Amino acid sequence: MKSLDRRALLRLSGLASALGLAWTARRTSAHAQEQSGGAYGTMEHAAHRAGPVGRTSLDAFNPSVFLRAWNFSDRAASERGRYYRETPRPDGTLLREYDLVAVDREIEIAPGVFFPAWTFNGQVPGPTLRATEGDRVRVTFVNQGSHPHTIHFHGWHPPEMDGALPEHEVMPGGTFVYEFDAEPFGLHLYHCHAVPLKRHLHKGLYGVFIVDPRTPRPPADEMVMVMNGFDTNFDADNEVYAVNTVANHFMHEPIAVRVGALVRIYLVNLTEFDLINSLHLHGMFFDVFRTGTSLSRSETTDTVMLCQGERAILETRFRYPGRFMFHAHQSEFAELGWMGMFRAEGAGRDT
Ligand SMILES: [Cu+2]
After folding, report:
1. Phi, psi of 3 (to 5 degrees)
2. Tell me, what's the pLDDT at 217?
3. If DSSP codes are grouped into helix, strand and coil, which group holds residue 39?
4. Which of 29, 98, 184, 249 has the fewest Cβ atoms within 10 Å of its own Cβ atom?
5. Ligand 1 centroid vs 200 CA: distance in angstroms?
6. Is omega for the bond preceding 158 within 30 degrees of 0, making it cis?
7. Interior angle at CA 230, CA 117 and CA 48, nearest 5
8. What gap in Å lies between CA 230 and CA 246, rounded to an integer?
9. 147 CA → ligand 1 middle, Å
10. What average pLDDT score do residues 49-66 get?
């Protein structure tokens, strides 16, 4: 029934784009196979070959920009200061001040598919916040949305800064200032913790919070990937999956990396409704630093599985030039948008 519901949704959503047609064809072919219990026919394979086509508008949110932006570095210098300020403190740490605003906003998550999101600063995920262990973090939160919201940070903090109890809810029009020391170092997150929690989460009120160790990790080509999904018909089941919100974005715009260079991925699972999500990278292995709270790798693998809210830092070096796919190893998620490409450039090991 799950696939039927999702297929019906894709039809009902009036997908006029070529992607919609290709997508519906793929869902139909999968359903046809389920019905017949037999192998795929020629027609179904032809539908598979259509692949993702059509594009979303990148004016409001560009997943490639989000990938390599933190502390509002994607904004012009003049505008950045409106949302983020750094002040040195006597002990050498920084006071980092952020402005986050909850606003309701419709976002395009696949060509022609719009989702009525609740956002931090107009985007899903919200801006990536980044501090060094021991810094003071001060977040001024303004709720300009239509519902009560909070910000719940993962990390050490006193209970009144937890944003998780009814008395912590910030009413529409209200403001609250969260303040705490950034610790421990690691890969964390922030999200609204108003109830019903799963609704406030899946509507888009979440973001990444990176705390760097005082002795920095080795220099690397760093990127932020948030695995998320969207329940477009509100049946508590996702119809669209992605890394950084827009289905199949990195199939159209492969992530450029250099052969031999250290690549570091900050991978966060903010998918609701599905218990787990995963990342599988083709043609190589990577080191995993679970929750990023240790500088020693916890495993070396080519597939990492994360529960809801779980995260991991991944490190690898591309050995060969060329294109390498990455995707959820839950095949259904991959077919519904959670798929992308790296493009490695430079001289390979055997060339
Ligand atoms: Cu909320």
Report:
1. -70, -35
2. 98
3. coil
4. 184
5. 4
6. no
7. 140
8. 10
9. 7
10. 83
Amino acid at 69: A
C-alpha of residue 57 to centroid of ligand 1, in Å: 26
Strands 221-230 and 262-269: parallel
Position 45 scores a pLDDT of 53
pLDDT at 121: 97
Answer yes or no: are the C-beta atoms of 22 and 46 closer than 8 Å: no
How many angstroms does the Cα of residue 260 sit away from the middle of ligand 1? 42
pLDDT of residue 348: 75
Q: How far is the CA of 240 from the centre of ligand 1 (A)?
A: 21
Locate 280 and state its tokens.
Answer: 């599988």
Residues 6+ apart with CB under 8 A from 32: 44
Tokens of 174: 């209200």
Q: Which percentage of the chain shows pLDDT scores above 70?
A: 84
Q: What is the pLDDT of residue 51?
A: 54
The amino acid that residue 44 corresponds to is E
Per-residue pLDDT band at 266 (split at 50, 70, 90): very high
Q: Give the distance (Å) from ligand 1 centre to CA of residue 126.
A: 13
Contact 201, 192 (CB under 8 A): yes
